[in-house]
Design brief:
By secondary structure, this protein is α+β, with helices and mostly antiparallel strands. The chain has helices spanning 3-34, 36-43, 82-88, 154-186, 191-217, 222-229, 296-305, 453-466; strands at 77-79, 92-94, 97-112, 118-122, 127-132, 139-140, 145-151, 236-240, 257-262, 269-270, 275-280, 284-292, 310-313, 339-340, 350-358, 361-366, 369-374, 381-398, 403-405, 408-415, 418-424, 426-429, 433-436, 447-449, 472-474, 480-482. Strands 3, 12, 13, 14, 15, 18, 22 and 23 form an eight-stranded antiparallel β-sheet that branches. Strands 1-21-20-19 form a four-stranded antiparallel β-sheet, with helices on one face. Strands 4-11-9-6 form a four-stranded antiparallel β-sheet, with no helix packed on it.
């Protein structure tokens, strides 16, 4: 073998080793290239494989991931400025554990109390209406005059005549009895005669009392009856407002009837028992709820246990009634079910239950007349929140504190300018409140946003889409640092 052939054989292994070394260096360089941005972000340095001044084509390609920050799209923290919090009207309050009554919402309305709220006033005898004192919208107290009626009733006239006659006969028999008393003591007349006079006197006195009561029932006042006894017959009677049913206050509008539908005019001839006017007394009302049959067990238990029902009145302004005389001057009003109907309405397929309601009023005067404005009125709509179950040791927040994304429910815990989104388990919710489980996902005492959770969630998504971790800033050289 020549020298040239020997040198060629020796150089081939060297070239092979050189190629292997180059391949290894290439592989290492490629691996460093792939993890360059992670090293730069972790150590706060610029990219060791690029120039310290990034080009315009690559200045937005830096990885903003921090070792304590969650990847974009999974972040649970957002930053919001004090100005933005004021714009949202954001309010944060500490969480606390409590017992909460789960309630079912049932519609209802304010109604009159049958036989109490509306009173019809009738004519006591046949006659002609000659005077009308109150008109619709006016108020009257019990015993005040409503109408004057000229009597046309033969029956009343005969009763007056019989009363006068029986009274005169009673006087004559009494005088005769007195004259014969002394003669009877001397034995001049038989004792049986005195007994007959006593019996006649008792019959006449019974007749007088009967005629008196009959005339009073016909609207004749006691002082007018005394005139009839003297021979001055009554030709006109006054129809007065009836007494109130039950106990009523007599101040500031209480104890008043409001004149409603007037059913006669001047000169109208009326019969005995004919309705003249309808009077309204709205101090005592009912709230009538309408529930479906499936809700009957809940309502029955609430009635049996005398649980308090929360009532929301439509178009009610409580502040306008504060400090005014009325139903709540002595004690706050408590609402509880009085009774449940045992029949289902065939049209609506609902049954009714009733809650007593004490009304409140205020009065004003105009042209010498007094008018009353009632706080609650028949026909007014209400929403009844009936308790059905007590949830113990739970956390209650306003409905605005919770935002939902599919099956997930979140609230936001405040930490300075930062808000952490926390997943919670919802046990119950209604229009105004949400009940969450006290299972350790949140802790009592944490300050939580009470409103605008949906807005905060939108801000969170917006900040997540920007790619900048919350609480961090980016330098011009592309490095990411925590806020100072």
């Amino acid at each position: 073998m020549s020298v040239s052939d020997s040198n060629a054989a020796t150089s081939r292994p060297r070239r092979f080793r050189a190629i292997l070394v180059m391949l290894a260096l290439f592989a290492v360089a490629y691996g460093l290239w792939q993890i360059r941005d992670r090293w730069a972000g972790r150590f706060g340095m610029s990219n060791p494989f690029t120039s310290s001044t990034p080009s315009a084509d690559h200045e937005d390609e830096h990885d903003h991931t921090h070792e304590n920050a969650q990847p974009v799209g999974e972040r649970e923290t957002l930053e919001i400025s004090p100005q933005a919090r004021k714009n949202l009207g954001l309010v944060s309050k500490p969480l606390r554990v409590m017992n909460y009554w789960r309630k079912v919402a049932i519609p209802g309305e304010v109604v009159d109390v049958p036989g109490v709220s509306d009173r019809g006033v009738t004519s006591p005898a046949v006659g002609v209406v000659t005077r009308i004192d109150p008109f619709p919208g006016d108020t009257v107290r019990p015993g005040e005059r409503l109408f004057t009626i000229r009597l046309l009733s033969d029956y009343v006239q005969n009763s007056q005549a019989e009363l006068f006659k029986a009274t005169r006969e009673t006087e004559l028999v009494s005088e005769q009895r007195q004259r014969l008393t002394s003669a009877g003591s001397a034995g001049a007349i038989p004792q049986s005669r005195l007994i007959e006079l006593d019996q006649s006197l008792r019959r006449l006195e019974a007749s007088v009392r009967s005629y008196r009561q009959d005339l009073i029932a016909r609207g004749i006042r006691p002082e007018q009856i005394e005139q009839i006894v003297e021979g001055n017959f009554v030709t006109e009677i006054e129809v007065l407002a009836p007494p109130l049913v039950g106990d009523r206050h007599a101040d500031a509008g209480m104890g008043l009837f409001e004149v409603g539908d007037l059913q006669v005019e001047l000169g109208t001839q009326v019969q005995a028992g004919q309705t003249l006017v309808m009077l309204a007394d709205h101090q005592e009302l009912w709230i009538a709820g309408k529930a479906f049959k499936r809700e009957a067990p809940y309502l029955a238990r609430a009635a049996e246990e005398n649980w308090e029902v929360e009532v929301e009145f439509a178009e009610d302004a409580p502040g306008a009634w504060e400090g005014l005389p009325g139903a709540w001057e002595d004690a706050p009003q408590r609402f509880a079910i009085r009774h449940l109907a045992n029949a289902v309405d065939p049209d609506s397929r609902t049954f009714q239950f009733v809650i007593p309601l004490r009304n409140q009023s205020r009065a004003y005067e105009r042209d010498g007349k007094r008018f009353v404005v009632w706080r609650y009125r028949p026909g007014q709509r209400v929403r009844l929140n009936v308790p059905v179950e007590e949830l113990k040791d739970v956390i209650v927040v306003p409905a605005g504190a919770i935002v939902r994304e599919g099956p997930e429910a979140y609230l936001f815990r405040q930490n300075g300018d930062l808000f952490d989104r926390l997943a919670v388990r919802v046990l119950h919710e209604d229009r105004s409140t949400v009940v969450i489980a006290n299972d350790g996902s949140v802790s009592p005492g944490w300050f939580v946003a009470q409103n605008s959770a949906a807005s905060l969630n939108r801000v969170l998504k917006s900040q997540a889409a920007s790619g900048t971790p919350v609480g961090f800033h980016v330098h011009a050289d592309g490095t990411v640092h925590g806020a100072h």
